[in-house]
Amino acid sequence: MTSDRSVFSGPGSLHRQVEVIERRGIRYLRFGRFGGWQGALDLRDENRIVFPYQRAFAALVEAVPAVRRFLALGVGTGTAMRTVRRCHPDALLYGVDVDEVVLRLAVEYFGCPAGRGVTYWVGDGVSYVNHAPAHGLSFDLVFVDAYLADRVYDPCLSPEFAEVLHRALTDSGVAACNVIGRLPPEGALAAYLSTARRLFPAVMVLPVGWGWAEQNMLVVFAKRPESLVKWPERLARSPALGWMQRHAWPRRLFVV
Question: I want to staple 231 with a disulfide (CB 3.0 to 4.6 A). Which of 16, 20, 63, 195 is the partner?
Fold first, then answer.
């Protein structure tokens, strides 16, 4: 049995317990002992992305046109922030998380970008993106990864949130959402996708698990279909993916 090394354990500003642990060369963040993983960093190769859905997002970041403003709703360990900084070094980065302690840990233990060109805000991400246009903010790329201890934050799967994302994007903007569900989509996820399809000319879904079981899926909306043209190609070639993923994911990707 492999023992975990505790790096940090304490209360968050919202979550009852926030932990950073190391296991077999990987550093993880979780909310309490039985909470799901919120993010990870490979200490042996910090450029290697650990979680499959984050690898899929990396291929998307490599494929989209130049990003001037990027927004992460749910920063976690900051993997998405690091990916965008690597691929689009001149982009302004905005990160929103409900827990101030999580943001501090992301910077201190996971290499999340900080300093010039990076802005963090503590609070509800849905509220933030809803009010962003009124403050003159629009984004070329938005990543929604609002995962609580054991589930996706419900408001991020509401049909109304698809409308909020549409208003917050630039004319050529792209939004990507990490969701958990089954295939074919049903219930709240199906209603969410239906609304998105009405608003966006391009909606694509990539399941990153196995078979038809409940799994992470990357749901991507684009205001211009040409913004996603290169994504299937990057899925087949991106160095962020393993060879099996490069073979399987372009075939699993489907248009809604």
Answer: 63
